[in-house]
Amino acid sequence: MPLAALPLTAMPLAVMKGVVVAALAVAPAEAPEEPRVVPPLVHAGALMTTMRTVEWFLWPTPFAESDRFVERWGDSFTHAPKFDASRRPFEWDGDRWWINAVGHTLFGSELYLRARACHFGWGGALAWTAGTSAVWEYAFEGNGVRPSALDLVWTPLAGLLLGEARYALFRAASARSSVWATVARIGLDPLGGLDHAVTGRACGW
Predict the structure, then answer these.
(1) Can you list the alpha helix ranges (DSSP code H) found in the chain?
(2) pTM of this structure
């Protein structure tokens, strides 16, 4: 089906699927290795702590109202995740569309990419992304707002599609030794590059 004929909500998936197919075509074959759990765990913890701190300052209501944290956590764990089908696409949880369509896509792909770089298979990386997204929704954000059904589904799904494309392209760039290949690797995995510069132990670097 031509891209222009797709409904608006299906276009991001179609575009990312095309990128994944193209990326896998140029990625080198990969020998299986034992997954490393600690690096993606530390990476996810640092990333989510940073995100929650940013929320505290950008949106003090509700994210900095510490006197209501326990009450809101209780609400998060005793009520169904938010979803309002009457709202516009990607605003079903009350957030602006770009927070969900762009922000959670990047968040999911970052979680997925780190797991893949640390030798998780695509299924394991998807499960890791889904689980970590749930931790974000319930443990980190649950003291400010109720979890979002959209985020719980979209974050790992988009993470799989965009993250696998980033991973395949990163591997393709790693198979070449040139300045432009290094620039491409940094662009595809900037946080991994920062980790490698600081610790020298980043997965995939």
Answers:
(1) 11-26, 38-58, 60-63, 69-78, 97-98, 104-117, 122-135, 149-174, 179-188, 190-199
(2) 0.83
